[in-house]
Structures are given as C-alpha cells and as structure tokens.
Amino acid sequence: SDTLNVNEIVRGLCGSSAGEERPSQAWTDDTEIIEEESDSLPDSIVGPLLIPVNIDAAFNIHANKVVYSDLILDDFDGKLINSGMVKLDNLSADTEVGSLKFSGLYSAPKADNINFGMAMDLKDFNIARLPQMIPAIDTLVPMMQYLSGIVNAHIAVTSDITPDMYFKIPTM
Questions:
Q1: Per-residue pLDDT tens digits for 63-114
Q2: Residues facing 63 on adjacent strands
Q3: CA dist., res. 62 & res. 59, Å (int)
Q4: What does the DSSP 8-state code read for residue 167?
Q5: pTM greater than 0.70
Q6: Across residues 135-155, what is the average pLDDT?
Q7: Which of 5, 19, 56, 110 maximizes the CB count within 10 A of its CB?
Q8: Cα separations (Å) of 106 from 89, 96, 116, 139?
C-alpha cells in the first residue's frame, strides 16, 4: 500500500461515533460549504478492542506512508500476526523526528484481561517529540517535559490495560 491511515482503522474497529460525526464546515464568501475531514483519532473511544482467539493470521505490512494520530511514518515495514493476540513484529519507520524500530504485543480475549508489551529502538530521535508518539509517556515519566535533544535509545514496557484502555500503572 502507498498510504495507511491508522486513525480510520481504529475508528472502524472501535465503532466510535466520534469518527462518524458530521465534518466541520466553514463558509466561504460565496456561501459555499467546504467540508474538512479530520485525520486525527477521536478524543475518546468507548470500550476495549477485543481480539478473537479463534482467528490465526499473519500479514506482511509495507506502506510508504502511515498516518497515526498526527504523526506521519515514512517507509513503514513489518509483520502483523494474530493468533489470539496481535503481535507487531519488527516494524520500522522513519519520521520527521527520527527513525524507529518497534515490536509489540496486545492481548485482549476479554475486557477484563487486556495486556500490552512493547520494545522500541529510537535512532537520531528528537526526544522532546516522544510524547507525540507515545502520549502516555509524559504521565508515566513526568520528567519528559524537561528533556530535549537528539538521542538513540531502547524503550521496553509491559502493562495490564483497564477496560477503559488506560495503563494499570502498578503492573508496569
């Protein structure tokens, strides 16, 4: 694929009505309506994304451009494996803030049994922009607001997730 918009996929999978609202409208001098579409994720998504345990599939993924929230990933490549969980294996991408390699695991057979784990390598990465990629990081690591510069780093985390899709901090 040339372009993959993860925001549209998430809205579709989660059944979010926030993504289906009427587009915002602006009036021009000619009283013509111009419709604007939002490429960002809705402010809230109701309920967890449950993963069926009876589906076993594997996909090789490549896209020249991936849109996630307001982040654009270029030259995106990797594997998506679903065998009762979603495993993202050896994903790599370049962004305007640096390069990254990512592997992750998401398991959610039931709403009260959701687990997440990930490992990410960052190369020549503008650390001040990390919260853009992982919004929860500034909550988990409050000192992020004081960090800046270009870094190479390895980040790994595992956590249980609440049915509202928040990290259970004591399980990290």
A1: 898 887 777 888 888 888 887 788 888 889 898 889 989 999 999 888 889 9
A2: 76
A3: 10
A4: B
A5: no
A6: 85
A7: 19
A8: 12, 26, 5, 21
